[in-house]
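EI: anyone free to look at a 301-residue chain?
SC: sure, send it
EI:
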Amino acid sequence: MPNGLLARTPRSGPCPPVADDPTDAELLHRFALRDDHTAFAALVRRHGPMVFGVCRRVLRDPHDAEEAFQVTFLVLVRKAGVLRQPDRLGNWLYGVANRVARKAKVSAARRNCHEQAAAGAGWVAPARPADGPELRALLDEEMVALPEKYRAPLVLCYLEGLTNEDAARRLGWAPGSMSYRLARGRELLRRRLTRRGLYLALWPVFLQGLTERASAAPVPEPLLEATVERAKHEPKPVVASGHRRLAPVLLLLILLLGSGAVALAARGIDRPHADDAGTAPPATAGEDPAAEPGDHRCGGH
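SC: here you go
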């Protein structure tokens, strides 16, 4: 028996080809800048099975799962132009799907409480033992908590069915680094499950849940089409400009300089102008030598 919780077993059918397909970054670029909904549809088809799997594991009601699926991709519509690492879209969608589905689960629980209260104070819903999807949802919860550099290869290789080489190409990593990252991710996940007392007791369920390809339960075609159509009615995604990207860098510089920057600025403000001293500043390269001594063109005087 393999030692790793996520040790892979042979899979039937070929893995999804990625070598000749547009990358996630290219598809996001086409959608964000050109409003290309064909590119968006390609992203939904590429990552939909993984997203739908997460939503179905967290939510028992199929309608709630379908709504969470659509909301996840609507979040992508709003964020398509500002994602910092577009080539790691699968990992990002995995996290969003978990958050959206768990919020929907909380809402469903509240709704059930209201229904129970309406049915009568003496009625109590029968307890249900945890089943496969619910136990796998616990695994999703722990995977989301892993560092991104170890979660991303687990999502691509075990939930989206890519080979090590294809996953490395998606992430822009050297193919030889995938084995280490997968092994490290499995080990970190094993430790988290052990701390919760779930590793040994739930080994068969977790092993089965992560060796089944997400494409084994494809997204219904009407749901895919409805998601793409719904996205067309959303506002166009905001595209990050160069100024927005520089803003965090400038803020960091200000914080690092701290009081030193403030002191230098104050000295610059308090320093008397050359006009006040009655002398003209020396001419610099590129300055019109015929200009009057008091003619500061860049100062607006």
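EI: The mean pLDDT is 74.
SC: 👍
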